[in-house]
TrEMBL record:
Catalytic activity of the protein: D-glycero-beta-D-manno-heptose 1-phosphate + ATP + H(+) = ADP-D-glycero-beta-D-manno-heptose + diphosphate
Keywords associated with the record: ATP-binding, Carbohydrate metabolism, Nucleotide-binding, Nucleotidyltransferase, Transferase
Protein origin, superkingdom: Bacteria
GO MF terms, alphabetically ordered: ATP binding; nucleotidyltransferase activity; phosphotransferase activity, alcohol group as acceptor
Species, as recorded: Hymenobacter actinosclerus
Residues in Cytidyltransferase-like domain copies: 29-154
EC number: 2.7.7.70
Gene3D superfamilies recorded: HUPs
Single GO biological process annotation from the record: carbohydrate metabolic process
SUPFAM superfamilies reported in the protein's UniProt record: Nucleotidylyl transferase (SSF52374)
Name this protein carries in UniProt: D-glycero-beta-D-manno-heptose 1-phosphate adenylyltransferase
Coiled coil segments of this chain: none
Length: 159
């Protein structure tokens, strides 16, 4: 499978998730900007994937990243999606343009919703939706010292 084949529209993703769940597979969902993929991201996504049989990543569009983080993204959404989709443990990537991924989570209905340990369960967008249908909301440990902001700062200090 080519990495670009893992980048799905919301409608195609909902159908794929339904097929996976019908086959008894647990679907894990997470989301983010993933502007400069680094060890922290890879570790986080790999841990998320090990919580179920399929990993779906909701990726902020360029417009939504810009609203959240002025001056970003550094890479366009197509590039970020292709890089994420190239990871063996990522099963699907879909873009979302809303302020939060709530509508996407409601459409996908994942079995497990995951964010990094820097979030409290009650702060994770979509936690009520997933818990209401009997799913799990979990956090995974992060690799200390890795963030896109920190990398950008280091680069700008060493031109």
């Amino acid at each position: 499978m080519w990495s670009k084949d893992k980048i799905l529209s919301r409608e195609a993703l909902v159908a794929a998730v339904a097929d996976w769940q019908a086959a008894g597979e647990q679907v894990v969902f997470t989301n983010g900007c993933f502007d400069l993929l680094h060890l922290g991201h890879v570790d986080y996504l790999e841990k998320a994937r090990h919580l179920g049989q399929r990993l779906v990543v909701g990726l902020n569009t360029d417009a939504s990243v810009s609203r959240l983080k002025p001056g970003r993204p550094l890479q366009d959404e197509v590039s970020r999606a292709r890089v994420l989709a190239s990871l063996l443990f990522v099963d699907a990537v879909t873009l979302f343009d809303e302020q939060t991924p709530l509508a996407l989570i409601e459409a996908v209905q994942p079995d497990i919703l995951v964010k990094g340990e820097d979030y409290a369960i009650s702060q994770i967008v979509g936690h009520e939706t997933v818990l209401a249908r009997g799913g799990q909301v979990l956090t995974v440990p992060l690799v200390p010292g890795y963030s896109t902001t920190r990398i950008v700062e280091r680069i700008s200090q060493n031109p």
